[in-house]
Amino acid sequence: MHALALTLIVTFLTSLAMAIPTPQSDDPDNGDPSSQDSQAGSSASTPESSGSASISQTTPTTENSQTSSNQEPNTQSGTNVTMAFCTDPGAMFFAECWDILNLRSYLNDPVTGWNQTTPTCNATQDGDNCCMSYEPWTTCFLRLGHGYGGGDCSQINSKGCAEDDKEDVADVILAQVHYVMHTIYAINNFFSTWYNALPYAEVQASLAITNIITELDPPVNASISLEEVLLAFSVGLAFLGAPEIAVAILSLASATRIAVQAFLISVQQAPSVGRALWPQGSNTENIQIGALDSAISGIVGNLSQTIDNALQLVMSDMPTFVAFSAYGTFSGNSTPSLPNGTEGLDFALRTYVLTTAMSRNGWYAHYSTGYTTKFQVEENFSNVDGSAETCQMDANSICGFNAYWSNTTNTVYSLAKDTGWALTGNNLMETIVTNGWADLSTMFDAGLNCTLLGKMGDNAISFSEDGHLDLSCISQLDFCRNGCSPCPVEATNGTCPFPICPGIAGQC
To answer: In terms of CB atoms within 10 Å, which of 52, 119, 259, 265 comes out highest?
Structure first.
């Protein structure tokens, strides 16, 4: 692999890395209902049962069941979390208690798990000791755990999903029920607040796209993939978990960033949720870029539906819930949520639309590597081609008439137009920054990374079977090379992915 490509991959993906550990799932399909012996969409399996108590009273096996409350504490959160904390109904919630209480086995053990020991009601039963065949298992769990009906967290913004700490179960399983119900409420809260933040993101996206189209004036027949636009809007959430973007660019509160990180880790553990959120190949329609601003409301409507579908999957399928909740990402004391006015949900969409419009309108980027200091850049990019323009880098790392320095990858970028060098490339760069259409580092570094990998023109976003979300091609900005420069990477089918910059074929 080209050395620069490797550097860019590591740098770009590091910017999207979680600030908290990302454990691997036990099974790549552990969140896929089709791979589990579960009663998907139902409440529980139907073993021969004598009609046990309202919530299964099988004594739960915990990781610490052979030790006292003074066992070696789990210190992941910085607090000495012991079994005593987890079994005290008056204590605050700790994410570590998911593992200490062994809730995975409590819920989904193939022999003793709640899903196996809680029967489905027959025609003569009223639901006191069993789950109704039509209710999601989480609804049944809340009903049996609270001792009354009406609680339902399987839908977005459900009025019956207000957390209640009243439990009506035996002491032996009180801690497990307490934590599972808290997790159910917390997951619904995150999906609902994400859903409720979409109207603000829609307004922001519509305004930005209108201005981008006005500025770049792409050809009337220039089109864009409607599916890619929808995916770009939905994966904007992923960028909010990256400190370099969430803090430095969007100025998001740490609680928002941490909430997004928890969600992304959960999706990695339950890939089926990601596939529900980011379906691919379901829509091959293209739309003219000039008409995109008027199509945003429909795109938001589609995203709203996919968010609701993903929540229903988590709340109706036990294995998916267990995988999504693994490691207690939604079991802590702070309930992950997004404010209605969350900035940046359209960050990926703006980047994708902007760079696609630039490429459709004849813009290219050119790159030079090895610039490790600001002084090097200013010295080498002053008086280019005999011009009197000096390079004095501004706060946006733009200098001269056409240079941007990414100190993340030590690369300098310039813009070229299909009619030759764009002597006012810096004007477009400044306009992009001023209007918040994209982060220049993401726009240039990601575009170069995608081209070096030979993936430009493929899907801008992909979600793999193992739960990996690939955003390395979110920038669709085309790249070119000087007239006498060799192809920087191996040609594909005899064609260099870096064409010679238009209008400067003879220049070096």
So the answer is: 259
